[in-house]
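S1.2 Input.
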Amino acid sequence: MLVQAKRLKKDREQWTIDFGYKSGKQWEGLHATADVLNVAPSYALYLGSPDYRKPVECGAKDHPSDFEQCDRCIRKSVSFYPSVLAADSVGAEPRVAYRESIPLESIADPQADTETPRTQKWTYGLTPELKEFLTTEAAGVPQAVAKQLVSKARERRSWQFDLMEKNLTDQISEDFVFESLPPDQGHLSAPYFIQILRGLRRTPPGYVLNVLNGDSPAGLDTTAFGRISSRPG
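S1.3 Output.
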């Protein structure tokens, strides 16, 4: 993944997560760079303590009145959220992003059941291989993370009524886990299967191997890069 950090800001009971920073240019830069690197763009949300976040609940059933007693709220202090959802008017709403974000401590769980009753009915464009990926225990940490992120997009997509198809060719080579991915997009900002699952590979991409060997990342159009930092920003 390529990760952009975002911090929850709170003024009295008003929440803000600035997904539209710099009039959307930061989001565009995140996605443009992720397109060049051929990985999944995502947000890491820094959300503070459960007490700071109340009275908005995390979506757990029978939520306790004491937020410090909710395990999911405790784990949500750092959470991940697919950036493909943040361009959607609903997905950019801070309370929705908080509720649907995935706690960092949970995102790599290979046994996580990510398919809801709604998404189980949403099988448009799924190959048998992709169905198996979505409905069985993940084979490892990268697959577990990708599975949880793409399932969030599937959940949102299942609520959309219009099917919007584009003639997209996803130039996926043989080192990718999935050789073919459906171009379903709907009202989301990008074809979510392609954008999220393109980061799953059997071997590292060539530009990574170049860097590991001490060479320059040949073949990358670095003019599309914004500032990439190893620290949250």
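S1.4 Remarks. Confidence is low (pLDDT under 50) at residues 161-172.
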